[in-house]
Amino acid sequence: PTAPTDGRHCHDADGDGSTDTRHECVGGHSLELALPATPRDAPGLPYQWALFNWNPHGHSPHGRYDVAHFDVHFYLVPREVRAAIRTGRCALLIDCGQLAEAAEPVPAAFLPAGYPASSPQTAEGAMGAHLDSRPPTSGTLSGQTFIYGAYGGEIVFMEPMLTKDFLLRHRTSAGHRTCEPVPQPAAWRIPGWYPTRYCTAYRPAERDYTVSLTDFAPSAGLRGHAAADAP
C-alpha cells in the first residue's frame, strides 16, 4: 500500500477534530502473525507472536526513520500487553499517562552494550519504547538496524528494521541473503533459547522475501544444552 497508514492506531494530537494520517497515526500497515505452539518436550522459545509493519513513508523520529521501511517485531509478551498501550499526544503518539511506564529503564544486565536503558522520545502508542544502538540523530536509516522494544522496564519485543531498498537488493545480490549478529545482553530475564543472528533473504524458487531470527542458543537458565542452528 502507498497510503501512510491503515488507520488502526491514530490520535487527534492537535485537537483540531480531524486526523492527519501522516502525523497522527502510528504503525503504518500492520499484520499480526501467530507462531506455532512450542512442543512440550522442546526447549523453551520465548516468542509468543510477531507483528509485521510496512511504513511506506517511514515514521518519526524525522530525519532518522522517515524512509520507506519494514518493521518486524518478535514479541516476548502476550498480545494483550501491546493492546493495552494506548495512543495519545505524547512522544510518538503514546497516551501521556503511560509515558512514564514506557520510559521505565531496563536493567543494564538485560540490555546489550550501546543500547540506552530508556528512550521516552521513542515511546509509541500500541508498541512501547524503541531502544536503538544508534541515536535518532545519527542520520536517515539506510539498510538495516536492530531494535529492542521496552515497556515497564522489561524487553517486550526484538525488531529487525530494514528499508525497502535494502530488502529489494537481495533479489540480485550474491547468495540473496544477508545475516548480522543479534546484539546480546549479559542475561535474559526469561530463560530460554534466543537468536544470535538475524537474516534477510530473497528466495528465487518461492519468489518471496524472508526476515528471520536464527542460530538460537540457550540462555544462562538452560546451561548444558547444545546450541541450535536454524537454517
Give a count of the beta strands, DSSP E runs of length 2 or more: 11
Distance between the termini: 31 Å
3D shape: globular
Poorly predicted runs: 221-231
Sheet having the most strands: 7 strands, antiparallel
Strand order of the largest sheet: 1-2-3-8-7-6-5
> Helices and strands: which structural class?
mainly beta
Describe the structure in your own words.
The protein has a domain at 29-170. 6% of the residues lie in helices and 33% in strands. It has 3 helices and 11 strands; from the N terminus they run βββαβαββββαβββ. Strands 1-2-3-8-7-6-5 form a 7-stranded antiparallel β-sheet. Strands 9-10-11 form a 3-stranded antiparallel β-sheet, with no helix packed on it. The longest helix has 6 residues, at 164-169.
In short:
Helix content is 6%, strand content 33%.
